[in-house]
Amino acid sequence: MTTAPEAAASADALLLPVPDDDGAPFWEYAARGELRVQACTACGRLRFPPRPCCPHCRSFDSEWRRMSGRGRIWSYVRPHPPLLPAYAAQAPYNVILVELADAPHIRLAGNLVTSADAPLDSMDPARLRIGARVHVVFTETGSMAVPRWLLEKS
Amino acid sequence: MAATLKDATAIVGIGQTAFARHLPQSEKELACRAILAALADAGIDPGEVDAFSSYTMEETDEVEVAKAIGAGDVTFFSKIGYGGGGSCATVGHLAAAVATGQATVGVAWRSRKRGSGPRPWKNTAVQLPTPGQWTRPFGLLRPADEIGMLARRYMHEYGATRDHLFNVAMACRNRANENPAAMMYERPLTREMYMTSRMISDPLCLFDNCLETDGALACVIVSAERARDCRNKPVYVHSAAQGLPSQHHGMVNYWNDDPLSGPAWTAARHLWKQADFGPQDVHVAQIYDAFTPLIPLSLEGYGFCGRGEGAAFTEGGALELGGRLPINTGGGGLSEAYVHGFNLINEGVKQLRGVSTAQVPDATTCLVTAGEGVPTSAILLRS
Ligand SMILES: [Zn+2]
């Protein structure tokens, strides 16, 4: 169950990722401004979400490979309330799925914003388009860094 | 092969409570009322029940239910995971148990107070599940947001429009308008209402979402042999399947090579392989409709049309009574009640008994599906 301080924090702040053992490296690299994806050391295949074992060769050895941080919008939604208070305050905002340029079929959920620290609803919705090119930036939120996405200048 | 599930068992009793935004009774009481109604419908004494199946998300467990209704010694019980994906598997598990002699009288049920109970995204003290680390911080909070993402991609790839989603909402509402038990009885929907309603998660509007409902349902499964002696016409479990595709990731199936081919495709392959008939022989279908886009996706998954053709399939009144494939004839989750799809099972039984409020003439085959987009299940019923 959520403890009281966490609950209090979530009422006025966006939710923070709660990493598990497999996902923790992603967030540690994010804190250094790096977008990395788990790769099998044995066969080299990338996998997401992270997990203990490679589904292709069943190796338990993995490394975290740095990505270019570029991708394209695969899809998006615009949530409207009722939502958790911190999200309702910025709604309607966008959530995008970004298909990574260097890793087809690895898609990261995120938000298209006008600058790293801008609100979730900062981007004009008219500019949301499937296929649009984006690149990653990181924003500090609470004690963690989370990825955000900016439109590539065309 | 020694044993087969095909027509070896039948649903012989169905029961339900009222459906409403708020019911005063507890979930446990609602469960007991629905189960006792189903047993009375079958003409079977509660003391004969020796098998139970429900969902992992069901709050009333078999220990409490068995005690309350005065069941006998119970020799089989199971709980199916993944929310609405579990509905048809409850029948499938009991059919397998009865067909293989592990039990003789099985009861499946679902009791819910979603209408008056809490919804997690309205609370501040929300627990963040581990897979949520990849989605929830970014505001992908509710099932509507998660399915909306797939819906937008589907619309982009195949030219599906909001009018197609409206066709789904309209078919369900029209059937609910004919069903006095439905929450949307005598409450018609128009295209104008649909197109101007508020967005929940754009591209999904209010009418693309299922109802918030209090209520419970149950059904009773016995062997085909025993079924002949029951009060009502048996409805045979012809085929049953579950589906958890390779590299599937639950509602946010975005990391699959092909996120638009969900668990329905996997369940369908097994379902049809075990059946004596195919999609073209289905007279009426009860297709899980927590959200309208699940219908075109399921129509494709269960083979009623080709990949990408599900939206076009809804055109020209195809889903209405008299259409190519009448669906959700009680109103479905969108307009009868959202009880995790259990009402679809009971409505399938009503159709094959010939007593639906929106009866498809001479219907003898019915497909019932559970939630697409999550590990799912489906059954084929025949009379
Ligand atoms: Zn490998």
TrEMBL record, chain A:
Positions of the ChsH2 rubredoxin-like zinc ribbon domain: 27-61
Domain of life: Bacteria
Gene3D superfamilies: 6.10.30.10
ChsH2 C-terminal OB-fold domain ranges (all copies): 64-138
Pfam families: OB_ChsH2_C, zf-ChsH2
UniProt protein name: OB-fold domain-containing protein
TrEMBL record, chain B:
Domain Thiolase C-terminal: 257-376
Organism superkingdom: Bacteria
InterPro entries the record matches: Thiolase, Thiolase-like, Thiolase_C_2
Stated name of the protein: Lipid-transfer protein
Taxonomic lineage of the native organism: Bacteria, Bacillati, Actinomycetota, Actinomycetes, Kitasatosporales
